[in-house]
Amino acid sequence: MKDVRTSEYVIEFARMATNMYRLGWDERNGGNISYLLYEDDLKDYIDTTKVIREIPLGFDAKELIGKYFLVTGTGKYFKNVERDPAYNLGILRIKNDGLTAELLWGFEDGGRFTSEFPAHLMSHIERLKVEPNHRVVLHTHPLATMSMSFIHPLSDREFTRTIWKMNNECIVVFPDGIGVLPWMVCGTNEIGMATAEKMKDYRIVLWPNHGIYGVGTTLDEAFGLVETVEKAAQVYMMIGERKVINPITDENLKDLAAFFKLNYRKDFLD
Ligand code: 2HA
Ligand code: ZN
Description:
Blueprint: H1 8-22, E1 32-37, H2 39-42, E2 53-56, E3 68-72, H3 78-81, H4 85-88, E4 89-94, E5 100-106, H5 117-130, E6 136-140, H6 143-151, H7 156-164, H8 169-173, E7 179-180, H9 189-199, E8 204-207, E9 211-216, H10 219-239, H11 250-259
Helix pairs in contact: 5-9, 6-10
This protein binds Dihydroxyacetone (2HA) and zinc ion (ZN).
């Protein structure tokens, strides 16, 4: 067996954690990522018959039985993932009872998965229903998006409209818009269920006063969604109270949608 730390997915995952830390998105133990892996990814690296230990999930994930996830650990810092992946990350399989994670690699200090793992798994379940190639759930605390959530109305429509109008690219990258939750206690099954409910329609979910979720078929895609929202939120925060005299209008957005043949949320434009 080859060293898991030399696998393409661990290297890419760890690099992304470093990048997100450097962007200032993941202070201390902020943020978490989970990445759906397949037998084919594991076969050269892990003996999947050897379970290191079992960790209760705290909810029923029967839709994901037998699926493998590479995931960040609770209390672990993004800053440190690349230096020591086997301590900060774990590879888990959802056991055939649907209630337990089987640790196959990592969490070498006896640690466990991120406190947001229920929200991740519930989101994986919903996204797999609409996108069979779905693989990544990413949660992070980007500065401008968080800041904007303190001062902007929190409806899917209003938040999406404003972000769409901060950069022409936004409606092209996420024509499906942004789902916005009310303030909720993080780390609970309740916020997990509310996030997953939004994931039926959206690939981006805002947790006001806290951070954001992005999903994708690849790490790059999930990251790119969050990066694009964050850039638009930076523009919004930089404009501040000043009067916008050259806006992106609803008509402009409709022209973009027509040109790029976007299946966008039509009810979000006037
Ligand atoms: O993992 O970001 O939401 C730490 C968090 C909790
Ligand atoms: Zn968080």
